[in-house]
Amino acid sequence: EVSENRPRETQTSTASTSPSPSPSRPLGAIVLLAPARDCVFEFGQIYRVCLLQNAIRSVDVHLNAHYGPYPVYVVMPSDPEEASSASSAAAAAAATTTTTGGVNVTTSSRYEPENCVRNLDCCRVDRPYSTSDREELRRGLNNTDVHFVEVPMYGGEALEPGFTPEKFEQWRRGKEGAVEGFRNVGYLSMCRLYSGRLQRMNFLSEYKYYMRMDDDSLLVDAMPFDPFREMERENLSYAFKRVLSDRWGIGKMWEITQRRMSREQLDNMAGMGFVNKVDKKGKPPMRVNVTGKTRSVVMIRRFDEREGGRNGGAGKGKGKGEEWSYGGLQPYNNFHVSRVSLWYDPRWLEWENDADRIHGFTKYHWGDANVHAMALGLLLRREEVEMWPDVPYMHNTNDFGRGEYPKPEWRGRCRFHRNSSSTLGRGTK
């Protein structure tokens, strides 16, 4: 029996065979991952669920009012209680003892719900989305059906086999050859989710394409074209808006990828611009050259990249007297459109097995955008990939700048509340 506070509208599992899109279904679906229920956006002091609501509304107004309409799937954790368990175990493993005034004092990074408004710890614990939460996310939509899908996010199939919080805490410190870093379990689970696991879930198997957006993103104007019809018309398998550079653990990532690639594939990936073919004169400048339609490249330097020296460095691979170097260039995949069947390719399933075997996400802090660059090089020809720089999509302060996002009026009309005395994000009841 399902409680009223924990509805399960859609149960899902991983499909075992390649998808068969239904002719009665729309060509594609939009997918967003729900944030931790009480997570506070660090700029603007507003619940991220309020941002999710505005992201869905932007799809309703700027996409589905003109094309489709296409369904929206909001992916939520089926195991939110595991988030606090994992965090507590990691915090206990991270506890340190210092001496103050001759007295030993044990400190620990505790993730307590009552502290979440003050120090963002609500992003490291989670709670179920209630029936009223889900109804509120649907409120005010004129063109869009919203579905909710619950999947494990904090344990079980969400993480690599053999993962433990105790191991993870050691890896975060750079032990056992790991990449030192601050990314938490929930974030890395999300990266692994978008690297093939989500794409093979049953709820997407009836669609030919999917489009990803983030909860803290928006369509800010009418889409100039139907993204799914454009994919079909141009025979594309993957489209994205722009590129950026990220370097978390890329040496190990490139190591397991390059050994699976032929010289032709390496040249093809170099032609896309995601890897550089190195010669005695040195590597060429970063570029993206996926189709003749590419008009501009907007480079974003992630704050993570400042840690590039300790986060894995550039990956290099050799073959037949030549060398290809991967420096971290990737599709900025918080907006992308992809063919669903791409992620069923046996070559990719083998790659995922290799990644799980070495705990690529939790030990080396891999991001899913770097992983998508590997998928494009391993699976696709250059003409199957296209960049859409003019899509009116914007992603939090990376695009809006501080003070412009989130919009002040959102907080006033946000109806989501914590089950506490906090008034953050409180609007009209």
UniProtKB/TrEMBL annotation:
Q: Give start-end positions of Low complexity composition bias.
A: 10-19
SUPFAM superfamilies with a match to the protein in the record: Nucleotide-diphospho-sugar transferases
Q: Keywords for this entry?
A: Transferase
Q: Which InterPro entries does the record associate with it?
A: Glyco_trans_15, Nucleotide-diphossugar_trans
Residue numbers spanned by region Disordered: 1-25
Q: Name one GO biological process term.
A: cell wall mannoprotein biosynthetic process
Q: Which GO terms describe its cellular component?
A: Golgi apparatus; membrane
Provide a Gene Ontology MF annotation, just one: alpha-1,2-mannosyltransferase activity
An example Pfam family from this entry, by short name, is Glyco_transf_15
Query: What protein family is recorded?
Result: Belongs to the glycosyltransferase 15 family.
Q: Which PANTHER family match?
A: ALPHA-1,2 MANNOSYLTRANSFERASE KTR1
| Name by which UniProt lists this protein | Hexosyltransferase
Origin organism of this chain? Odontella aurita
